[in-house]
Amino acid sequence: MNLLILGGTGRVGNYLVENALQDHHHVSVLVRTPEKIQINHKSLTVIQGNVLSKENIEQAMHGAELVISALNTDGGTTLTESMPLIIDAMKKEGIKRIISIGTAGILQSRVSPELLRYQSSESKRKLTRAAEEHHKVYELLEQSELDWTIVCPTYLPDGERLGNYRTEQDFLPVDGSQISVPDTADFAYSLLESGDYIKARVGIAY
Length: 206
Fold this sequence. Notes:
Elements: E1 2-6, H1 11-22, E2 26-31, E3 44-48, H2 54-61, E4 66-69, H3 78-93, E5 97-101, H4 129-143, E6 147-153, E7 166-169, H5 181-190, E8 200-205
């Protein structure tokens, strides 16, 4: 499969690239700084560019069959500015499937089900800016015609690959407090071949 991975130099993105190459997929990554990609592989295409550039996104999207976004909030509005460009380029290229890494803050609250976790007392975080960015991305994907899935990890230490995590649609698994970076990447990667959680958010935790 031809995959486009955005955010491929990030914590989760790096594992996603490794997983895909190990399974003999062809992987394209769009990165501002190619030197950050430490992997040298015949099936890896590194494209220098910026996710905030319509032209760069369209170039990177060409020939892809599926998109994985592991972009983070980057301390600014990268997520909300890039997602409309990503959605438009996917439509133009005829790509339907996108898997995105979000945050548990945009799952439904168990204590106040009409609210998202970051809007309720369930969230322990005082700063909500990152969750607000992810919320806007969720709304953009929900309004699109794409087959999207947003993987929503809770506290995300580097940790080890354990492989025994729990997932739940729309909610964080009960008493879930953390999930490692490699396990988050492994679950997101497993959705490539799965029809589960289409047009849905999915919480992941141990």
